[in-house]
Amino acid sequence: MASNVNPTVRRRRLGQELRRLREVKGMTAEEVAERLLVSQSKISRLENGRRSISQRDVRDLCGVYEVEDQRVVDSLMQMAKDSRQQGWWHAFGDIPYSVYIGLETDAESLRVYEPQIITGLLQTRTYAEALIQGALPETPIADVEKRVNVRIRRQERIHAEHGPLRLWVVLDEACLHRVVGNRQVMREQLEHVAEMSQQPHITVQVLPFDVGAHPGVNGQYSILEFADTVDSSVVYIEGVTSDLYLEKAQDVQRYTVMYEHLRAQALNVEQSRQRIEDVAKEYAR
């Protein structure tokens, strides 16, 4: 469940406020970097929340922006302090997608399109183990177990008694037929998805093969939305060596429209559950 202080979200909010102060001052990131004798990329990373922000960074930036209200400075300094605290995921060590976990932990709703595999929040432990071992064949067993444990821990967001994550998943039909682990693993996994899809806050739709070309042919993506209006929606695209986060309104809107088309072309909820259950029965034979 979301903690009271989410360092990822604090960094993001602080970065947004620092960008606003810079724009009010009429300065470019390059000009600020020159004043502070740092790289322009550092200023950009501070503003997009992908880098930890120290209280010294805040103090220096407030000086450049000539922020005279001490209450504003103190508030930003406190946000910087909070942003350096560790989230629950840090207990598992170095997690490549820790920024995403921080966002997911604080999100109110999540829309996911998956073209190849069952989405992480709906995976069983045995499916997750087989998937990670197959996707990362040179990863030590201890690291595989760590990744699996993080994945299972993330699922607390959809099992929360109060304010669970609102999850909407569109699965390409290929996800049902790609055998991860073995047939028994797949049967248990699909039965789990069918069961979870009956929860009022979880919607699962299957995009059938006969749809043909569709807006999701370019691959997996997720759209995260937040309860606090100051937190803009984020499109997350997972990569092999690095991930992509899109926050510009026009980018989010484009992916949102794509998702609406996917939902419209997919089987409805009841048809999707029936398709999942039918394939699960095939694995039991």
From TrEMBL:
GO molecular function: DNA binding
Top-level taxon of the source organism: Bacteria
InterPro entries: Cro/C1-type_HTH, DUF5753, Lambda_DNA-bd_dom_sf
SMART domains linked to this entry: HTH_XRE (SM00530)
Domain HTH cro/C1-type: 18-72
Pfam families the record matches: DUF5753 (PF19054), HTH_31 (PF13560)
Entry coiled-coil feature ranges: none
Gene3D superfamilies per the UniProt record, alphabetical: lambda repressor-like DNA-binding domains (1.10.260.40)
CDD domains documented for this protein: HTH_XRE (cd00093)
Name of the molecule in the record: Transcriptional regulator
